[in-house]
Every structure is written in structure tokens, then in C-alpha cells.
Amino acid sequence: MSDTILLHIEAGLARVTFNRPASLNAMDLEMGARWRDVARQVTSDPAVGAVILDAAGPAFCAGGDVVAMSSAVSGSDEIAQMAHVIHEGIRTFVESDKPIVAAVQGAVAGGGLGLMLAADYIVASDRAKFVSKYANIGLTPDLGVSTLLPAAIGQRRALQLLLQDTTIDAATALEWGLVAEVVGADAVASRAAEIAAFWLDGATAAFGQAKRLVRTGAHRPFSTNLDDEAATIGAAFGTDAARARIAAFAAASRKTAATKENS
Predict the structure, then answer these.
(1) Rounded mean pLDDT, 31-49
(2) What is the C-alpha separation between 71 and 110, in angstroms, rounded?
(3) I need a surface site. Which of 137, 169, 200, 232 has the fewest CB within 10 A?
């Protein structure tokens, strides 16, 4: 089994770690296939309630390993096929009911932006940098960047990154909405773990379904989304976890009302 992406599952938490630090975690053919396979495994495991996406080494992900790809493939059809493989992994994670937090400790470039944005919540180091670099080497966006990037920061800012040789720092990424939080470099891993623990300690399935509704709803008719919402909340009401939490909420509300009455 490839060690280009590490997977560890314990107590409902799946940790997915990019592990080609010498190549800035850029994806080659083997890593791309591993990414797809890990996505399938994690999202189909009913025991997994939350996912942490992180990376080994100084960079989070430099996108596709264009040097390795240029020497390993013989034509454009093979490049397109490799992209399809990685895209399947991204789509599998994005459309799943598993909430994902990314711990971004370093630089993110090219397709790494799309891989990062497969996560639903992004914690970045104050040292992290974000850059496109596609056009600089004569290539076009892939790995979901043309969809996920404008969805996160808006079309104008996405074009600013894609059409100029612009590198933004963590503070700008936070201001633009590219990341959710910026913390010190030594706190990225612990903060991501806190977020995942919050999901696992709470109504885990409800967080996952909320993520799925938002992610998939962006590309469907409104009427379809409403039907999905109705079915999903109906199913949620039937679970033991929801019944217990609703009962606790009702009891707390009655207690608050009684306190106000007696004050």
C-alpha cells in the first residue's frame, strides 16, 4: 500500500495526511490513486464521524507534481485521466456526510487549493501562503479549483489569484474567506483536533448532514434542495440521538422560563 497519503482511523476520527514532504506534497500518479481510494474508504465507513486533513513537512500541498507527470505519461489523454482520478477523490469527500477540517501548516499552490477546499473548515498557520501558479507554467485550473475557489472567495478574487502572479498571506486568506481561522504555527494541529472533537462530541450525524446539504445544494435546483432538507430533517427526528437532545433542550427551556417567572 502506498504511504504517499497516510490514513489513521480511531474513535470515529479519520486523519488523512499528505506524505510526500520532499515534493511539497505535490500529487504524482501513485498519490492521486491513493487519494481516491482513501476518499472512498473514509466516506463509506459508518464508524467515521469526522475527518482531519493535514500534511507532513513544510508545505501543505503544491498541487499536481507536473515534473513527475511530464516524465511518466506519454500524452494529454493520460494527464486528463489522472485528473479524473484525483477529481473523484475530491468529489467523494465534498459530497459525503463526513465533516472535514483541514490543518494547513504551510504553503498551498495550484491544485493544492482545490484539495484544501475539499475540507469544510480550514485552520491555517499564520505562516501559510496561497498562490495559483497555473498560468505561469502554461496550465489551467484543475482539482476543483475553478469551482471551489470562486465558491469560497467569489469570482473576482478567484480571477485575481488565477490571472495574476499573486501570493496571498494567511491574514488576507482569512479576510477573503479562503480559510476559517488563522492561528500560530504551533497551534494548527491542536485547533483542528479541537474542531473535529467538537463534531464528534456533539450531534455528529447532524453536522455531517448539514455539510452534505450545503455542499451538494450549491449545484442543484432550489426545489430539489427543499425536498432533500425535508427528507433529511424527517430522518433526523427519528433518531435516538435527536430525541435525547430535543428532550434536553425542552427541559432547559422550561427551566429558563420557570426562573424568569420566579424572578
Answers:
(1) 97
(2) 19
(3) 137
| 166 and 128 within one domain | yes
Query: Using the 8-state DSSP alphabet, how is residue 142 labeled?
Result: -
Angstrom distance (rounded) from CA 118 to CA 263:
50
Percent of the chain with pLDDT over 90: 73
Residue 10 CB coordination number (10 Å): 8
- How confident is residue 247, by pLDDT bands cut at 50, 70 and 90? confident
Query: How far is 75 from 205, CA to CA, in rounded Å?
Result: 44
For residue 128, give the CATH number of its domain.
3.90.226.10
Residue 26 sits in which domain range? 5-201
Burial letters 154-165, b for 16+ CB under 10 A, else e? eeebbeebbeee
Which H or E element spans position 210?
helix 204-217
